Protein backbone atom coordinates (compact mmCIF):
# COMPACT_ATOMS: atom_id res chain seq x y z
CA UNK A 1 0.00 0.00 0.00
CA UNK A 2 2.89 2.39 0.63
CA UNK A 3 4.34 1.90 -2.84
CA UNK A 4 4.77 5.26 -4.59
CA UNK A 5 3.27 7.19 -1.66
CA UNK A 6 5.52 10.09 -0.79
CA UNK A 7 4.84 12.21 2.30
CA UNK A 8 3.60 14.99 0.00
CA UNK A 9 1.19 12.58 -1.72
CA UNK A 10 -0.17 11.59 1.72
CA UNK A 11 -0.66 15.28 2.63
CA UNK A 12 -2.59 15.89 -0.59
CA UNK A 13 -4.66 12.74 -0.04
CA UNK A 14 -5.49 13.82 3.53
CA UNK A 15 -6.55 17.24 2.25
CA UNK A 16 -8.73 15.56 -0.38
CA UNK A 17 -10.47 13.49 2.31
CA UNK A 18 -10.95 16.62 4.47
CA UNK A 19 -12.39 18.42 1.47
CA UNK A 20 -14.80 15.60 0.68
CA UNK A 21 -15.98 15.04 4.24
CA UNK A 22 -16.12 18.75 5.08
CA UNK A 23 -18.10 19.82 2.06
CA UNK A 24 -20.46 16.87 1.92
CA UNK A 25 -21.30 17.17 5.60
CA UNK A 26 -22.71 20.62 4.90
CA UNK A 27 -24.19 19.53 1.55
CA UNK A 28 -26.08 16.72 3.29
CA UNK A 29 -27.25 19.16 5.95
CA UNK A 30 -28.57 21.46 3.21
CA UNK A 31 -30.47 18.56 1.62
CA UNK A 32 -31.94 17.40 4.93
CA UNK A 33 -33.06 20.94 5.77
CA UNK A 34 -34.51 21.37 2.23
CA UNK A 35 -32.44 24.54 1.77
CA UNK A 36 -32.04 26.47 -1.48
CA UNK A 37 -28.35 25.60 -1.93
CA UNK A 38 -27.47 28.28 -4.47
CA UNK A 39 -29.73 30.84 -2.84
CA UNK A 40 -27.94 30.27 0.47
CA UNK A 41 -24.66 31.42 -1.12
CA UNK A 42 -26.04 34.94 -1.02
CA UNK A 43 -27.38 34.59 2.50
CA UNK A 44 -26.24 32.04 5.00
CA UNK A 45 -26.69 28.40 5.78
CA UNK A 46 -25.01 25.07 5.10
CA UNK A 47 -24.20 26.05 1.51
CA UNK A 48 -21.96 28.88 2.70
CA UNK A 49 -20.20 26.54 5.14
CA UNK A 50 -19.71 23.97 2.36
CA UNK A 51 -18.26 26.62 0.07
CA UNK A 52 -16.01 27.90 2.86
CA UNK A 53 -14.61 24.42 3.53
CA UNK A 54 -14.22 23.87 -0.21
CA UNK A 55 -12.19 27.03 -0.71
CA UNK A 56 -10.20 26.61 2.50
CA UNK A 57 -9.04 23.09 1.66
CA UNK A 58 -8.18 24.14 -1.90
CA UNK A 59 -6.19 27.10 -0.54
CA UNK A 60 -4.27 24.89 1.89
CA UNK A 61 -3.47 22.32 -0.82
CA UNK A 62 -2.48 25.13 -3.19
CA UNK A 63 -0.28 26.69 -0.52
CA UNK A 64 1.54 23.40 0.04
CA UNK A 65 1.98 23.11 -3.72
CA UNK A 66 3.32 26.66 -3.97
CA UNK A 67 5.95 26.12 -1.29
CA UNK A 68 7.08 22.70 -2.56
CA UNK A 69 7.09 23.70 -6.22
CA UNK A 70 8.89 26.99 -5.57
CA UNK A 71 11.64 25.11 -3.76
CA UNK A 72 11.85 22.46 -6.47
CA UNK A 73 12.24 25.09 -9.19
CA UNK A 74 14.57 27.31 -7.17
CA UNK A 75 12.10 30.20 -7.04
CA UNK A 76 13.01 32.60 -4.27
CA UNK A 77 10.35 33.85 -1.86
CA UNK A 78 7.74 31.20 -2.72
CA UNK A 79 6.36 31.52 0.81
CA UNK A 80 5.50 35.14 0.05
CA UNK A 81 2.65 34.04 -2.25
CA UNK A 82 1.07 32.19 0.69
CA UNK A 83 1.50 35.16 3.04
CA UNK A 84 0.19 37.59 0.41
CA UNK A 85 -2.96 35.49 -0.01
CA UNK A 86 -3.96 36.46 3.53
CA UNK A 87 -3.69 40.14 2.62
CA UNK A 88 -5.12 39.95 -0.91
CA UNK A 89 -6.82 36.70 -1.92
CA UNK A 90 -5.75 33.18 -2.83
CA UNK A 91 -7.71 33.67 -6.06
CA UNK A 92 -5.07 36.30 -6.90
CA UNK A 93 -1.87 34.80 -5.51
CA UNK A 94 -2.30 31.24 -6.83
CA UNK A 95 -2.72 32.23 -10.50
CA UNK A 96 0.09 34.76 -10.00
CA UNK A 97 2.33 31.96 -8.72
CA UNK A 98 1.34 29.75 -11.66
CA UNK A 99 2.31 32.55 -14.06
CA UNK A 100 5.68 33.03 -12.36
CA UNK A 101 6.16 29.25 -12.26
CA UNK A 102 5.56 29.06 -16.00
CA UNK A 103 8.14 31.80 -16.58
CA UNK A 104 10.64 29.95 -14.38
CA UNK A 105 10.07 26.65 -16.17
CA UNK A 106 10.62 28.33 -19.54
CA UNK A 107 13.77 30.00 -18.25
CA UNK A 108 15.10 26.64 -17.07
CA UNK A 109 14.27 24.98 -20.40
CA UNK A 110 15.72 27.79 -22.55
CA UNK A 111 19.28 27.28 -23.72
CA UNK A 112 21.75 29.65 -22.14
CA UNK A 113 23.97 31.92 -24.19
CA UNK A 114 27.00 29.74 -23.47
CA UNK A 115 25.11 26.66 -24.73
CA UNK A 116 24.56 28.21 -28.15
CA UNK A 117 26.88 27.08 -30.90
CA UNK A 118 28.65 29.97 -32.53
CA UNK A 119 28.18 29.88 -36.31
CA UNK A 120 31.35 29.66 -38.36
CA UNK A 121 32.44 33.00 -39.84
From TrEMBL:
Alphabetical UniProt keywords: Membrane, Transmembrane, Transmembrane helix
Transmembrane stretches, start-end: 12-34, 46-67, 79-98
Annotated InterPro entries: DUF2834
Annotated protein name in UniProt: DUF2834 domain-containing protein
Organism: Leifsonia stereocauli
Amino acid sequence: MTRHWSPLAVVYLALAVCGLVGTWTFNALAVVQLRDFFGDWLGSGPAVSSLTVDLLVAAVAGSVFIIIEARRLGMRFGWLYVVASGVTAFAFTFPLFLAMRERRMRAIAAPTHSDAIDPAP
